[in-house]
């Protein structure tokens, strides 16, 4: 199956107004959306939580010029294809988080298929959802169980944790750790699972005990007891208490790592990892799925049994989840964040300029990709040039903050001029084919973006060009020969 080339297209994307989003102009999602839509009035009390850039049916991007769904445009570019829609395997998002989102986990592909079969209402997708978060501002999250020694330290500093996790279960966990049982050992993971299950079920069985224990736990915090907690975790505890009083999830910072990312830092976790976003703004890349199993700290559906089953009970330090930035030698404007996952890779494009001089010589090429990508400009304005076929001059495209473009596979793009002190953009791509969502029940988007009528310049594409980066050659190609559109799940199995 061959994929024909297309053109660079400006997109219209969905905003999600989830309650945990930052309100009005306090939200980068709102400001960025308004930058791309000068007529948009930002609602002062409206939460602007997420901007979705992808083809997922819960918030599909459309081509601005034609209002066609991006998935249809992609499908038309795939030769010998009968499917009406072809999806990208990722959703790139901008997120603005006011307070804690639910404590949650995402299933593996196998687990997702099972859950979807059992309960399609709560698990609408049959696909997995690895997640990457790149901090735009100071960005806080809970991610992964703490090292075993820290959990023990907190159990000892806060006896409430032992009570809520079960005295017998907690004692067994502490004894194993004291005997030197490795945290990689299935014995210790089983002991943690027992503690975790007991604690989650306490919310159902003895909610008044949860409330009583939380009261004494907070009293201890107020008295200055810290255990393995850092001072920065104290405000997180108070915020959780305020938003989710009596919720057993308020104990989570005692056994889950509290990560604080500075702008430019990036973390990744695949399926089976317990996590919760706390505050700040980020670029998020996720698998093209909406499957979430929630544990606590949410008014939404909580599936304790599935959650207890799905977790991998890995205990480790936060640096395990960090994605190192990689400067691409031939592309000085580009920093790559490539997690151990085929669903997405993130490129940061950063150029500073003063008058005629720029931090990188212009024009500067973006890495040519044999797969489709989406780019969002978050700061500044610049001229992009898309290579054309034959002897025609490259097509010029002026783009600025708030603009979002789809770049088809094999479209060579460079930046020729920067008109602002800084140009900052993010580009997400993947060589995988996205999942087949055709059987999915469509959920109406919460907020439909309005469409503007001004068109972008038509851009012609260049003939096939081999990726210049050696590592890209090793990866599977998007939409090329021998890819079976309807066997995407099999392709995605075992990844991440
Ligand atoms: Zn998640």
Describe the protein's architecture and organization.
The chain has a domain at 95-318: Phosphomannose Isomerase, domain 2, CATH 1.10.441.10. Helix 4 (148-157) packs across helix 6, helix 6 (167-178) packs antiparallel against helix 7 and helix 7 (186-205) crosses helix 8. It has helices at 28-36, 70-77, 109-118, 148-157, 159-164, 167-178, 186-205, 207-222, 233-243, 304-310, 470-473, 488-492, and strands at 9-12, 14-16, 22-23, 47-48, 50-54, 62-63, 90-97, 103-105, 131-135, 139-145, 256-261, 266-269, 275-287, 293-296, 326-327, 334-337, 345-354, 357-358, 364-365, 373-379, 381-386, 395-400, 404-407, 413-418, 422-429. It is elongated. The chain is built from twelve helices and 25 strands. Zinc ion (ZN) is lined by residues 104, 106, 131, 275, 292.
Question: Can you give keywords for this protein?
Answer:
single chain; 496 residues; alpha+beta; Phosphomannose Isomerase, domain 2; nine-stranded antiparallel β-sheet; eight-stranded antiparallel β-sheet; elongated; disordered N terminus; disordered C terminus; binds zinc ion
Name the bound molecules: zinc ion
Over the alpha carbons, how many angstroms does the gyration radius reach?
Answer: 24 Å
- Specify the structural class: alpha+beta
At CATH level 2, the architecture of the domain at 95-318 is Orthogonal Bundle
Averaged pLDDT, please? 84
**How many helices?**
12
Strand tally, please?
Answer: 25
Q: Label the overall shape.
A: elongated
Q: Could you tell me how far the N terminus lies from the C terminus, measured between alpha carbons in angstroms? A: 25 Å
> What's the name of the CATH homologous superfamily of the domain at 95-318?
Phosphomannose Isomerase, domain 2
| CATH domain class of the domain at 95-318 | Mainly Alpha
**Residue ranges: pLDDT <50 for 5 or more in a row?**
1-5, 441-496
Helix fraction by DSSP (H/I, runs of at least 4): 10-25%
CATH topology of the domain at 95-318: Phosphomannose Isomerase, domain 2
Strand content: 25-35%
GO cellular component, one term: cytosol
Pathway: Nucleotide-sugar biosynthesis; GDP-alpha-D-mannose biosynthesis; alpha-D-mannose 1-phosphate from D-fructose 6-phosphate: step 1/2
Domain Phosphomannose isomerase type I catalytic: 8-147
Keywords: Isomerase, Metal-binding, Zinc
């Amino acid at each position: 199956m061959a994929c024909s080339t297309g053109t660079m297209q400006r997109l219209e994307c969905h905003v999600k107004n989830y309650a945990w989003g930052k309100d009005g102009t306090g939200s980068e999602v709102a400001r960025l959306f308004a930058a791309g839509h000068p007529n948009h009035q930002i609602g002062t009390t409206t939460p602007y939580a997420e901007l979705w850039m992808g083809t997922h049916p819960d918030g599909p991007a459309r081509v601005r010029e034609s209002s066609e769904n991006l998935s249809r445009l992609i499908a038309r570019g795939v030769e010998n294809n009968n499917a009406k829609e072809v999806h990208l395997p990722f959703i790139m998002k901008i997120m603005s988080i006011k307070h804690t989102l639910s404590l949650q986990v995402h299933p593996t592909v196998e687990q997702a298929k099972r859950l979807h079969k059992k309960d399609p209402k709560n698990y609408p997708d049959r696909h997995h959802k690895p997640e990457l978060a790149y901090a735009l501002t100071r960005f806080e999250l809970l991610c992964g169980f703490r090292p075993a020694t820290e959990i023990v330290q907190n159990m000892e500093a806060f006896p409430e944790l032992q009570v809520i996790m079960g005295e017998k279960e907690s004692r067994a966990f502490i004894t194993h750790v004291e005997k030197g049982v490795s945290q990689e050992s299935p014995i210790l993971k089983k002991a943690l699972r027992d503690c975790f299950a007991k604690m989650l079920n306490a919310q159902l069985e003895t909610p008044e005990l949860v409330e009583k224990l939380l009261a004494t736990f907070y009293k201890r915090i107020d008295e200055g007891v810290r255990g393995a907690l850092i001072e920065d975790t104290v405000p997180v505890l108070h915020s959780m208490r305020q938003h989710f009083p009596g919720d057993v999830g308020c104990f989570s910072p005692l056994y889950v790592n509290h990560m604080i990312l500075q702008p430019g830092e990036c973390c990744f976790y695949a399926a089976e990892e317990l996590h919760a976003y706390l505050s700040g703004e980020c670029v998020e890349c996720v698998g093209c799925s909406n499957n979430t199993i929630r544990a606590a700290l949410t008014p939404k559906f909580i599936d304790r049994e599935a959650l207890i089953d799905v977790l991998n009970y890995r205990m480790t330090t936060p640096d395990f989840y960090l994605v190192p930035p990689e400067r691409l030698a031939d592309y000085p404007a580009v920093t790559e964040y490539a997690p151990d996952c085929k669903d997405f890779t993130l490129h940061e494009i950063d150029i500073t300029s003063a008058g005629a001089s720029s931090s990188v010589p212009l024009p500067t090429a973006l890495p040519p990709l044999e797969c489709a990508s989406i780019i969002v400009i978050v700061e500044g304005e610049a001229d992009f040039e898309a290579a054309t076929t034959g002897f025609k001059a490259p097509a010029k495209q002026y783009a600025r903050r708030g603009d979002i473009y789809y770049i088809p596979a094999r479209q060579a793009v460079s930046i020729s001029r920067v008109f602002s002190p800084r140009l900052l953009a993010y580009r997400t791509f993947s060589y995988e084919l996205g999942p087949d969502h055709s059987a999915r029940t469509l959920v109406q988007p919460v907020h439909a973006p309005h469409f503007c009528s001004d068109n972008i310049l038509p851009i012609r594409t260049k003939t096939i060009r081999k990726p210049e980066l050696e590592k890209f050659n090793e990866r599977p190609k998007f939409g090329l020969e021998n890819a079976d559109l309807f066997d995407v799940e099999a392709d995605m199995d075992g990844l991440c």
